[in-house]
Each structure stands twice: as structure tokens, then as C-alpha cells.
Write a structure and sequence with these properties.
The protein is elongated. The chain is built from three helices and twelve strands. The protein folds into two domains: about 40 residues; about 140 residues, Umud Fragment, subunit A (Ribbon), CATH 2.10.109.10. The longest helix is centred in the N-terminal third of the chain and has 29 residues. With about 190 residues, it is an alpha+beta fold.
């Protein structure tokens, strides 16, 4: 019985319809895999590279990050979140930390950030002093004020203004590369 099955299989392999069905199956499998990868990259998660020193020491130049894109669909960014965004009028992405939330007044004086007149405790991610001041600015609705963790080497909301929610790509959820810095969860 086993020999008969093998004989039938060998005969069918030579039929043009059998070959076409196998080729179509292979093409469809690849098409589904490519569409799934594009869907995941476009809507669920992204792997991206840190470009420059603006987030050191939290994130270093050329490190690879894991960015999830879903949570901001049903929740707003929170102070301390590290996110990927587009600056208004630009297409390239950058990685920054959320400092100011909608309706808050942000200022920089004496090397420290103030929110609504109160000094912000940034001890989890920043222990330095900024070399320049910034006059008070109100963060508009549906926007955030972002800064790089390496405050003195960062182009951020101090120069480009607040970031509208629509320009946020996603939230950084970990470092993937190099393996010596691998972490899942919000980097601080």
C-alpha cells in the first residue's frame, strides 16, 4: 500500500496542474508573509536605530530599539515616556522623552525644567544642568513637549516647538541591540 502511494505521488509530481498548484501555493505563502510583515511594521511595532547622542546615556548612538505603536491609540503620552516622533515639517524620525503635557506651562531656568512654576524631578533620567534658559511656553492641546536626555546636545521642543499627537510614531519599549544593553520595558 505504501509503495502504491509513493508511485501515485511520483506520477502526480510530473503533471502540469500539480506543479502549478505547488507554485501558486508557494507564491501565496510568500505574499501572506510579506503582507503580515508590512502590517506589523506599519501598525503594531517597529525596530529602529538611535541616530546621534541626544538621548545619552539612556539610549546610545546606533543602538536598536523596539517601538510599539498601539498604546497611543487609546491612551495619551505620559511624562517620562520615551517616544519616536516626527518634528513638524519633517519626515525623519527622532527619539525624545515626554516632559510637558497639554495645558502645562514649561520653562527652563538655572539649568532646570519647571512645569507650572514647580521644578520637575528628573532624577530617573537626567542629573545634569542645561546651559541655556527658555522662557515659559504653554503646551497646546493634543501635543507634548519633548526633550532629549542629553539636554545640551539635543534638538527638541525648545527649538522645534511642541509635538502634536499626530506626529508620534510610538513608544520605545526596550533596547534590542547591542545584546549587552538588551532590555524590555521602558528605558530610563
Amino acid at each position: 500500500m505504501k509503495e502504491l502511494r509513493l508511485l501515485v505521488y511520483e506520477m502526480r509530481k510530473k503533471e502540469p496542474a500539480y506543479k502549478a498548484a505547488n507554485t501558486l501555493d508557494l507564491v501565496l505563502t510568500f505574499a501572506v508573509a510579506i503582507l503580515a510583515a508590512l502590517f506589523i511594521q506599519g501598525f503594531l511595532l517597529e525596530f529602529t536605530r538611535v541616530d546621534g547622542p541626544s538621548m545619552e546615556p539612556t539610549l546610545n548612538h546606533n543602538e536598536r530599539m523596539f517601538v510599539e505603536k498601539l498604546s497611543y491609540g487609546w491612551s495619551e503620552p505620559q511624562r517620562g515616556d520615551v517616544l519616536i516622533c516626527h518634528y513638524p515639517g519633517r519626515t525623519d524620525t527622532c527619539v525624545k522623552r515626554v516632559i510637558g503635557l497639554p495645558g502645562e506651562m514649561i520653562s527652563v531656568a538655572g539649568g532646570a525644567v519647571f512645569i507650572d512654576g514647580e521644578r520637575l524631578d528628573e532624577s530617573l533620567w537626567w542629573d545634569g544642568m542645561m546651559f541655556s534658559d527658555m522662557s515659559p511656553r504653554i503646551v497646546p492641546e493634543d501635543s507634548v513637549f519633548v526633550l532629549g536626555d542629553n539636554r545640551n546636545l539635543s534638538q527638541d521642543s525648545r527649538q522645534v516647538g511642541p509635538i502634536p499627537y499626530s506626529h508620534i510614531v510610538g513608544r520605545v519599549q526596550g533596547i534590542l541591540w547591542p545584546l549587552s544593553r538588551f532590555t524590555l520595558g521602558v528605558p530610563y
